[in-house]
Write a structure and sequence with these properties.
Layout: H1 13-17, H2 27-78, E1 82-86, E2 105-109, E3 120-121, E4 124-125, E5 135-139, E6 144-146, E7 156-162, E8 170-175, E9 181-186
C-alpha cells in the first residue's frame, strides 16, 4: 500500500526524502527554466550596454569640465596664462602635446609646455591617465589658453561620441569666450 504524506504523522528523515511530495525536477522543467533565463538575459543586455556607455560618457564629460574649470580658476588665481593641450600617448613624461584629445590632456602654465610648467595638485600630475578607448573626442582647437582674467579668447566646442553610440549618449561641451562651460546631450548620429 502506498503511503501518502500526512503532516500530522512524524516521518523519519528517509521517508520524508522519498515521499511523493519531494520529487526531482524533470529535464523538461529544467530546459524551460533555462529558456526563460536566456530570454530575460537577452532583453537585459542591450539596456545594460547603453547604461554602461552612458556612465562612461558622463565620467569623461565631468573630467573635461572639471579640467576646464580648474584651468580657468588657476589662471585667475595665479594671474598668468594657463593652457590645456591634448596629451601625446607615446610620451610617458607628458612633456609634449599632440592633436588627439581622446588620449587625455595636460594642464600647464604659460603657452609653451615644458616639464617644469605642468600644474600639480597635492603633488599629483593633472594630466589625465584616462585613455578614452572606443570613444572619439574632438575639439575645434588644438589647445586652449586661458588668459590671466580667465577668458579663453574664443568659443571652443568639444564633441564626445562613443563608438556604437546608443540613444542620446553624444555630448557637446561648449566653452564660451567668457569662460562659461555648458553641456548638451545630443542624439547619436545614424
Amino acid at each position: 500500500m502506498k503511503r501518502t504524506f500526512n503532516p500530522w504523522i512524524r516521518y523519519s528523515r528517509r521517508q520524508w526524502l522519498y515521499s511523493a511530495r519531494m520529487r526531482a525536477l524533470t529535464l523538461v522543467e529544467v530546459l524551460i527554466v533555462i529558456v526563460i533565463l536566456g530570454v530575460l538575459a537577452g532583453l537585459a543586455v542591450p539596456s545594460l550596454l547603453t547604461f554602461m556607455q552612458l556612465n562612461k560618457v558622463n565620467a569623461i564629460t565631468r573630467e573635461l569640465i572639471s579640467t576646464l574649470n580648474y584651468a580657468k580658476s588657476e589662471a585667475i588665481k595665479q594671474t598668468t596664462s594657463i593652457s590645456i593641450c591634448p596629451r601625446d600617448p607615446t610620451d610617458a613624461t607628458n612633456t609634449t602635446c599632440s592633436t588627439n584629445w581622446a588620449a587625455g590632456w595636460i594642464v600647464f602654465s604659460g603657452t609653451a609646455l615644458s616639464s617644469g610648467a605642468r600644474l600639480t595638485v597635492n603633488d599629483r600630475d593633472l594630466s589625465t591617465e584616462m585613455t578614452l578607448t572606443a570613444t572619439t573626442l574632438t575639439a575645434t582647437v588644438a589647445s586652449i589658453t586661458f588668459d590671466n582674467t580667465g577668458f579663453p579668447g574664443n568659443d571652443i566646442t568639444f564633441t564626445l561620441l562613443p563608438t556604437n553610440c546608443r540613444s542620446n549618449n553624444e555630448r557637446i561641451v561648449r566653452l564660451s569666450a567668457a569662460g562659461r562651460v555648458s553641456v548638451s546631450e545630443e542624439v547619436c548620429p545614424p
